Structures are given as C-alpha cells and as structure tokens.
Amino acid sequence: MSEIVLETHGLTKYFKDKCVVDHLDLKIPKGCVCGFLGRNGAGKTTTIRMLMGLLKPTAGSCAMLGCDCEDLTPAIRQRIGYVTEGHRLYKWMKIGELEKFQSAFFPNQWDNKLFNDMIEYFDLSKKQKIKHLSNGQRAQVSLALTLAPNPELLIMDDPTLGLDVAIRREFLEGVIHLITRQGRTILFSSHILADVERVADRIVVIDKGVLKADCTLEKFRSTIKKFIITFDKNIPSDINVEGLLHCRSDGNLLEVTVVNTSENTVKNWANSAGAKDFRQPALNLEDQFIEFTSPVKKGKLFDWEYK
Amino acid sequence: MALWIQIISGSDEPIYSQIVEQIRQAIAKGELGIGEKLPAVRKLASELIINPNTVAKAYTILEQSGFVATKTGSGTFVTDPKLRHHDAVDINALSERFDSVIARGLSLGINAEELISLFNNRVNKFLKK
Asked: Model-level pTM?
C-alpha cells in the first residue's frame, strides 16, 4: 500500500445533540483523486472543516501529511490547497492584489507562470475587482490562487457548485492539469457525478455522517447492479437475495437492486424461485449513487395517474 | 488533438471502456494503422479532461487483448492483427450486443433472413471503408 496522506480515526462531530459525522475512518493514499460524495446534509462540509482544522472534532482525530489536523503547522499548510464552498475571496481586492497577498504565504513555491497562464486562459484581467466578478469567475480565480503554490494535497468543497457547464469543464481542466503532475492527491466533494467520474479514481460515500463506501470508482461502478426478473405467475413473497438494496414489483415483474452480489448469484436465486426471464438494465454512476443512498419510500410524491 | 475519441459524460458505459471501444473501432477501420503510435497517456487525459489513470487502464486493456503493445520509453503502438487474440468472454460480449438490434428488427416486422442479409451488407460496407 502506498503512503497515506489523509486519514481519519473514529472522527465524530456533534452539533448540540445531533450527530453530523459518525465515527468516520478514512484512508486516502498518495496520488489518488478522491470524489467525496453524499447527499445534502450528509456531513461532507463538516468533515472537510475538521480536516482543515476549522472545527474541533467531538471525538476521534484526523491527520493530513502526517500532521494532526488540530495542530496543522504553517509548513504543513503550505503543502495543502483548500478551495471553500462558494469561493469566498476578499471582495475589495483586485485579482492582482489578491495574487500578491496570497503568494506571500508561499515563498519559494509560487508558480507565477501557472497563475498568469490560468488568468489569461480564463479571460480575466488582474485589474478586475473581485466584487465585480461573476460566481464562475470567482471560482476560476480561486482555483488559480490554490493551484499556483503547487499543492501536494488539494481539498475542495463542492468547487463547481453553481457554475455553468462551460466554466465547470474549464475548472476540471485545471484540476486535471494538477493531477498530471506526479504524486498529487485530491479530495473533492461534488454533486455532479458526471464530473466525479471524469476526474476521480476513488470515491468515498457518506450518508447521515456514516461512511458507506470507500473504494475505487471502478469497484463502485461494478458493485451496484439492477435486475428485472419476470415470473410466470406471482412473484415470490420472500425475496432473500444477498446484498439486497431495494426491490419493487409490478404484477409479475420484480426489480431488485443489489450491492456486491454477482450476476450469477441473483440468477440462481431467480431460477430457483421460478423466474422465466432475467435482464440487467444499464446504470450510470448517478443512477447507482441514487440507488445506493436513497431510502425506500412508501408511495409517491405525485400521483401521475389521471382519473 | 485526439478528436476522434469522444467521451460521453454520465453514460452507463464507464469512461475507460468508451476509450477502449473507440480505439478498437479506429483500428478495425484502419484509421489507426499497424505500428501507429497512440497519444501519450497524460496528453490524452488532459485533452479529454479525464483522470490519467482512466486512460492508462484503457491502454492496459487494449494491451492485454493484443491490440497495442507498449515499448518502454517510447510509447504505445498498434500491433499487427496476426498477433491479436480473443477469448470466449469477448465473443460472448460481442454476441450479446446483437440482441438489441435483433429485437428492434423483429419488432419492426423484419424477418430473420432479411436481418441476416442486412447484417452482411453492413459488414461488407464496413470492410470496404
């Protein structure tokens, strides 16, 4: 196993009596790009804020680059890039002033050329004031400011939130640029799974503060499957398929979603239960994520049947 | 620019397999000739805006099935077709892809013989390209 650059041990956070992060055990190896996924309120931002030392854990601990997150030294912080949700920057400064301000924290490691190239590529001018920039342009400035010190570890909290599709693609281009340099590690949260699939090679899924998955993207893609099984007459009353996530039925059709169960296992169960047809519809990452994190709901929000 | 490879975001087909499929097709159509060099992993990754490991995985799969070979230090090249091989799993996966076409054809009222002749025409047209 390669070197671990980010880890949490039983990391837990309560806000009053509400548990937001629940005994999180994570290990992110060096050089991997990890998509940090979870629904709204799952505890992603809270986890990231504890990693950055901005929030004190209620219990447990976390460490980055071998240093406990509650005592990150300036020298360690210089090796970590952090992009906050919403890209909050000093509004009264011009881009050039912000560059001067930020670069002072990173003597000997600020890549002037990279910063200038990115500002030019994004069609920005150093004379522009932050308060006159759009949301997307602020994200671009924020990315340029974060990548210029050439961080070893990059933590981004939903960096593409609210950006239009073209700016999002440019943002990803910047991130890919960083990845193609050896040994860079990235943890980023996002709700746009098509982006995650492009950039990440590993994913972490949390749900209500609890770790649900921590594996390679490929593993996740191959582990959640859906099957549609047709029965001759009635569907069996007892659906005891291994790793069952959800099941729904309609007449003699049964839809089952399983995690970590092979096609053969489901097929054998179906055959023994008297199935006459068996097929596996394709799922994309978004479908899989929804299957994986959505609770089974009774009834529907809307009734589409006109009476 | 490797414009002949197009990635569809959010597809149910994983990105690495989209790359494998498109390179295989380019080789089958002769758009990538024997001995031709594939783009470098990092270069293709930044052009397609995807993780370099995904490109590397696609190249590894192509290499395992004999479509390309890597020469250390100089890159990845298209191999001679005589050196390629396929196994039962490949054949099976290929056969399954016919199913949707067959189902569509039958539902349009096209019979088995007509389907086979359509298929043959298509194969001949492809080989002529």
From this structure: 0.83
